[in-house]
Write a structure and sequence with these properties.
Structural class: alpha/beta
Radius of gyration: 21 Å
Shape: globular
CATH superfamily of the largest domain: ATPase, nucleotide binding domain
Distance between the termini: 47 Å
Bound molecules: 5'-O-[(R)-(carboxyoxy)(hydroxy)phosphoryl]adenosine, zinc ion
Mean pLDDT: 94
Low-confidence stretches: none
Length: 348
């Protein structure tokens, strides 16, 4: 009798920050559904994510989002092989909502539970369309909460090479947008107005932290923009309200140029260090078109095949497809969690 290979359907759940997301992915690559309830509007007036508001919104959204993901996949709970959840890193009060929902459903539906590191899952978004990966790869994750470089030997073998010692790249975009009195989240709006600005107009620092360092620091850059707008002694009022659109665009373009310079140079350093054949780019800031362009130019000049894999834009920011996709590798390797799983704020 002929055996039919049944696909492995994994339900992924993501609540690490301000998106409540669920998705069903078959065999780690086929996206059957992806549902994201964004809280951007709730946090916008505070200029950043407020943990208690995030937690409450996750509670309201979690089961409707999970139900929608299963329904949109055209499946029923019996078709799900395992439930995967991001349990670290992130806001504990946010993570706990996803972790509790996943554990409850595993218990009620008798499913296996898989714990996924949110940052490692961001990398998975970059690998989604790729059948065969040339390894090792250097992976850069640039998000609102993290900036990390990894040596990726396989989806489950990641060695942390460096991370930010202060602000994350996305956080710097958000804070500079706030200084420039632009809307939240800052990344997309800075990218948009930077297109009309002169990136050389303002001399801003590029912190490289020594010749060999693979760590990042963006707080000095953010402070330089703050001093430019409010004066060195911070006694003057923020001059942004009196600036022309062109002046603001020049600041945005100079800031973006400085961030991208550092990200590209550090990635090049990491390639040299590990002899990488491929670069993977993921996280919310990877949606930035200028970063993508400059990273591709660098990869073209230093990698044999110029192989840069970037997450599709809809999977750069937080989503559950990446959670279910990475969980597939854990499923295959038999790496399951149990119902004592707890959320953890840290874990790069
Ligand atoms: O990965 P993500 O959704 O959430 C975290 O895990 O933190 O990333 C959100 C971050 C925000 O800081 C946002 O400003 C930034 O990604 N971002 C961008 C762009 N789109 C989103 N930064 C620069 N350019 C963009 N186009
Ligand atoms: Zn993220």
């Amino acid at each position: 009798m002929q055996t039919v290979n049944k696909s492995v359907n994994i339900l992924g759940i993501e609540t690490s920050c301000d998106e409540t997301a669920a998705a069903v992915v078959a065999d780690g690559r086929v996206v059957c559904s992806s549902v994201v309830a964004s809280q951007i509007d709730l946090h916008a007036k505070y200029g950043g994510v407020v943990p208690e508001i995030a937690s409450r919104a996750h509670l309201e959204n979690i089961y409707p989002v999970i139900n929608a993901a299963i329904e949109q996949a055209g499946l029923s709970p019996t078709d799900i092989d395992a439930i995967a959840v991001a349990n670290q890193p992130g806001l504990t009060v946010a993570l706990i909502v996803g972790v509790t929902a996943a554990k409850t459903l595993c218990f009620a539906w008798d499913k296996s539970l898989i714990a996924v590191n949110h940052l490692h899952a961001h990398l998975q978004s970059a690998m989604l369309g790729e059948a065969k990966l040339s390894l090792p790869a250097v992976a850069l994750i640039v998000s609102g909460g993290h900036t990390c470089l990894y040596n990726c030997r396989s989806p489950l073998e990641l060695e942390l090479l460096g991370s930010t010692i202060d602000d994350a790249a996305g956080e710097a975009f958000d804070k500079v947008a706030s200084i420039l009195k632009l809307s939240y989240p800052g990344g997309p709006v800075i990218e948009k107005i930077a297109k009309t600005g002169n990136p050389k107009s303002l001399k801003l620092p590029r912190s490289m932290l020594g010749a060999d360092s693979l760590d990042f620091s963006f707080s000095g850059l953010k402070t330089a923009v703050l001093y430019h707008c409010c004066g060195q002694d911070m006694k003057g009022e923020n001059k942004v309200s009196q600036m022309s659109q062109n002046e603001i665009a020049d600041i945005a373009a100079s800031f973006q140029e400085a961030v991208v310079d550092v990200l590209v140079k550090k990635t090049k350093r990491a390639i040299d260090k590990v002899g990488a054949k491929t670069v993977l780019l993921g996280g919310g800031v990877a949606a930035n078109g200028y970063l993508r362009l400059r990273m591709q130019q660098m990869c073209d000049s230093v990698l044999p095949d110029g192989k840069l894999l970037v997450a599709p834009k809809q999977y750069c920011t937080d989503n559950a497809v990446m959670i279910a996709s990475l969980a597939y590798h854990k499923f295959k390797a038999g790496l399951f969690a149990d119902l004592t799983l707890e959320p953890k704020a840290a874990g790069l």
